[in-house]
Amino acid sequence: MYGGGNTFEGIKTDTLAQEDPVKLAEFEARIERGEKIEPTDWMPQLYRKQLIRMIEQHAHSEIIGALPEGTWITRAPGFKRKLSLMAKVQDEVGHAQLLYSAAETLGKSREQMITDLITGKSKYSNIFNYPAFTWADSCFISWLVDAGAIVNQLANAKGSYGPYCRALDRICAEESFHLKYGHHCVIYLAAGTEKQRQMFQEAINRWWAPMMHFFGPSDKISAHTEVLMRWKVKMASNDDMRNQFLDMYVPKIWELGFTIPDPNLKKNPDSGRWEYTEPDWEEFKRVINGYGPCNKERLEVRRIAEERGRWVREALKKPSAAYVTPLA
Amino acid sequence: MKSLDPRVNRLPKVGHPGQVEPKAPLDQLGTFEVFVQAKEGKPFQHEGIVHAPDLEMAFVLAKEAFTRRFTCVSLYVADTRHVYVSAMTEGNTSAWDFINLIEQQPGNKDSYEIYYLLRRGKQHQHAGTVQAAIPAEAMSEAKKLYGTKLVYNVWAIRTADIRFTSPEEKELWLTLPEKKFRDASDYKGGDKLKEFLERTKV
Lengths: 328, 202
What we know:
The structure holds 2 protein chains of 2 kinds. Chain A has a single domain, classed as Ferritin, core subunit, four-helix bundle (Ferritin, Up-down Bundle), CATH 1.20.1260. Chain A is 62% helix and 1% strand. Chain A is built from 11 helices and 2 strands, in the order H-H-H-H-H-H-H-H-H-E-E-H-H. Chain A has helices spanning 21-32, 45-70, 79-104, 110-118, 135-156, 162-190, 194-213, 223-230, 238-255, 281-291, 295-316; strands at residues 266-267, 274-275. Chain A has a two-stranded antiparallel sheet with strand order 1-2. In chain A, a hairpin with a 6-residue loop joins strand 1 (266-267) and strand 2 (274-275). In chain A, helix 5 packs antiparallel against helix 6. Chain A is globular. Chain A starts with 20 loop residues before the first helix and ends in a 12-residue tail after the last helix. The mean pLDDT of chain A is 92. Chain B is α+β, with helices and mostly antiparallel strands. Chain B is built from 4 helices and 8 strands. Chain B has helices at 6-9, 55-66, 135-146, 190-200; strands spanning 30-37, 45-52, 74-79, 83-85, 110-116, 125-132, 154-158, 162-163. In chain B, the strands form 2 sheets. A 4-stranded antiparallel sheet of chain B has the order 2-1-3-8, with helices on one face. A 4-stranded antiparallel sheet of chain B has the order 4-7-5-6, with helices on one face. In chain B, strand 1 (30-37) and strand 2 (45-52) form a beta hairpin. The longest helix of chain B is centred in the first third of the chain and has 12 residues, at 55-66. The radius of gyration of chain B is 24 Å and the shape is extended. Chains A and B meet through helix 3, helix 4, helix 6 and helix 11 of A and strand 1, strand 2, helix 2 and helix 4 of B.
């Protein structure tokens, strides 16, 4: 699972002018050669800041993303589905652990990241601020939201920061199970009774708009985007990733006899690109700023979990403990 | 807070909604480096870190975080503070160039595990074991043994500071062959899909 459409802070490119030009040139040459940047290497402040932001958002998305699906563990149809969903949710939380660790190597403590999540300072993927009404919603998330995440993560795994890439390689390997599991669940609904088919159709109708939002608004071609792409922080434009997702999964949804609630959705045979109704970006902004249907609930569940676990952490804490930045 | 999830509605009221105290330093405990052996006879490789209160808990959490899918035969952990680290280099510059050869040190010798980074972007690998009285001597001894190899980073950890997997614990990774629900291969929907497509063909 993953939050696509990262929000990058608009940073003035003149911050680059303050960097040592010789070191900056060496840094860029290393990325150009396809080498990874490691935690102890010199890096521009802008690179460090944007990576922390991106990896942290990704980690928060894994944690919050486990909530709408976790809701369905006790009500999943049958023992096998319960086992599978539990394993999947455990994976997502495990991914968050790997990602927090990768962000920590850049110098932000886990305590600060968790505080920033709960206070609403840090963002996470918008799509998890919507409720999972039925079992079919949970299937939509497992199959299609994870599919979107994989498009995003496979691109990012070719990025320039070593610890993030290594975490992503591990995560992508586990996502293949999520995708197969999700597709399996959906095939069973599609081949089931009229009522089951209707349930999944309604899930598509509810989730299509958030799914289109998932990859983020069209990237404006700015000096800022250009520098992040040159440094291999951002690996593909939001539109390209959305197009790749549509290309891979719209035919699979149609194959099962379902419809997609966008009359303008079609592949342009000349350009090979998908055309669709422009998603409502005002809605996207509203939800990202905290006014979606579940934002408050998600953060409140996190806050209570942290509060309730406090005594355990206090009891475990050793007086001799001291923090050092993890190595790789 | 009114949720669709009855378990969320049942959560006890703790503190004040929306009010968060910033976390205190070390609320998330210290970090431990995790090393995994993929197959018998293969060298251990660094995989990442876990946060834990002590070595023993680090071992348990590392098993959960890194070996959920029978990807290993053994793992071990060490406190990040107990890892002695060389300079990081690149290109044709070897990390050994920044490690001094030193004289035999007085005092009792301990054994140290040595790890090196053979390719940037990859993970540190176990190289072997040396005997030394202090970490700097362990690095020096490692240079004598492996100094001809081009490596980009070297780590040394005192063997006594590592929590290893005991032979009896190896069965942690033995699982019944029919328990495959974590594997993508256990979710074959092809036949069901084919049957559905044939049934609904117009």
